[in-house]
Amino acid sequence: MHYDLKIINGTVFDGEGNDPVQAGVAVKDGIIVALGDCEGEATRVIDAAGRIVTPGFIDLHTHYDGQVSWDADMQPSVNHGVSTVVMGSCGVGFAPVREADRDKLIRIMEGVEDIPGTALAEGITWDWETLPEYMDALDAKPHSIDFAVQVTHDPLRVYVMGDRAVFDEEATDSDIAEMRRLTREALEAGAIGFSTGRSDVHRSADGEWTPASEASSGELAGIASAFDGLYHGVLQAVNDFNLERVADDGDRFDEEFDLLESFASAANGRPFSLSLMQRDFAPDQWLRIIDRAEQAIGKGLNMRLQTAPRGIGVTVGLQCTFHPFIGFPSYKRICHLSLAERVEKMRDPAFKAQLLTEKSEPVAGDGTPVPPIADALLAAVDFVASKTFRLGENPDYEQTEETSVLQMAKDKRVPTLEMIYDLMLESDGKELLYFPIYNYTEMNYDNVFTMMKHPLSIMGLSDGGAHVGTVCDSSFPTYLLSYWTRDRQRGGKLELKDAVRRLTSDIADYCGMVDRGRLRVGLKANINVIDMDGLRLHAPHMEQDLPAGGQRLLQEATGYNAVIVAGEVVVENDQLTGAYPGRLVRVNQLARELAA
């Protein structure tokens, strides 16, 4: 046989967690057709000597819902070996939508996921109304990698209920029936599942609660019943269990988890995933989530817990959405200026002296998407500085207090705010600092390791395409491979074969993506060739490359010799090639093929 592509001399990890083997991989028409010796000629041969060969990675939790309509490259995920992304997490998205509600959905996404509204307004093509039309429109555009679409609760609610959806009104029986019908329609058209968001920190750009944030148990169960009789589809939820309102409403953890169980149960056995992280203000809540999830499994529910391989961190700097001075009166007077102009003003000793005498004014409240936790953190400067770090050119995400900004201030015998001020002016105001807001209460990743090793865990929470002014966690796959299997010195590590499994077959099996996630004859040729010895992350940096001049954080990696999608090389030696074989993953078709 003459192959389109042959990879030779590589160390092959099959994606199932088995020991690697020295083998070749041959591809024709986008499908793996041979493993082992792979005798025969090929149009292209990749010599993977000294490299590992893995299935393409799958990212379970992204927010490319707007970007996917205008951007063929799908960065930053493609740069980290990801060949399939699941979009539509946390209940926010852009379909179904009526023309009159487009701006409303933009304001929700802008507030919840920190994506510039101007970029969304200019970039989104809006050549759809219904969810099936949205999927068709996206599938007709070029993309570097594959993507799957979830039905998202917020736009679904707005589409059915109009203004009633954003005024915290309860859905009627007819509202629920229509949301169920539309969800079923999308699932039958190939949507991978349904997601909802119930987080107090999720607000629209106007400071309003997201439409689905307080949906009733009856509404959620009614929508989930759309899965009845289907053999595909997953459910996803994010919930902080009313953490920011405990003082007013009391501990509603069990009440909220009961609601999630009812939601998952109504989907007739379909898999359900819930976000898992450690929050400083409720440091034991993650253990309660695990306990309740284990109980739910005992009741017959199919539940997984989405975990991240590092802190859920905020990048702060003068270019970023947030930094410690955004509420200071002097800074607010110059915040409209360009970066260079702000830096010039802030280098004036008189300006600095005045600002450092001031107190931060509230940045949260009515009419702003900023959650109350932001003001609490701004008021606790020493606490924040004790776990804020410089990442460096070879980013170190697991540092101790000895390398923190607080310790820098103590060493220099200057006030903490002055230390932060001086650091942020470095590199002409482009210096970035890292504050792990979640998953770093004990100043190490021992709890993260416990989460990842739990049998219910599944890798997720990268938020690819979102929080672009504060977060760049699309690099999670590279970090999992390089840090957790090779570089970590402070505690437990993962085996490389297990890390690959977590990024491939584990997620594919959960999602029902039976055509990928393994290196096996007959499966789609989504493949990575990686130089594990040379694999490394670079420091995040801000790029002004979004529509309407919007900016976002990007983070490059070194070590990806080839990222292959459907047999085509889309990344070669860490650079995009300009190939766009990515397609919409229609899980209903995969389920039918499996049944046949």
Automatic annotation (TrEMBL):
InterPro entries: Amidohydro_3, Metal-dep_hydrolase_composite, Metal_Hydrolase, Metallo-dep_Hydrolases_sf. It comes from the Bacteria. Pfam families: Amidohydro_3. GO terms for cellular component: cytosol. Keywords: Hydrolase. Residues 44-571 form the Amidohydrolase domain. SUPFAM superfamilies: Composite domain of metallo-dependent hydrolases (SSF51338), Metallo-dependent hydrolases (SSF51556). One of its GO terms (molecular function) is hydrolase activity, acting on carbon-nitrogen (but not peptide) bonds, in cyclic amides. This is Amidohydrolase family protein. It comes from Parahaliea maris.
